[in-house]
Amino acid sequence: MKTNKSITKRLRVTKNGKILGRKPGGNHFNAKQSRNRQLAGKRAVPVQMSTRDKRRFLPGMI
Question: pLDDT tens-digit profile of 38-48?
């Protein structure tokens, strides 16, 4: 089974198997936010995926 490349580019799998991705809602209108909130939007957050989706989209990574 092939790995879905578009999802692979958006997610990162840690050595412990956690799947990390971007926090949603941080593309624009960030100037009025505090600096802490702006920088918090850059940090990766854990993405919840079912085992079925992991097998379907990320077979080579997990």
Answer: 999 999 999 99
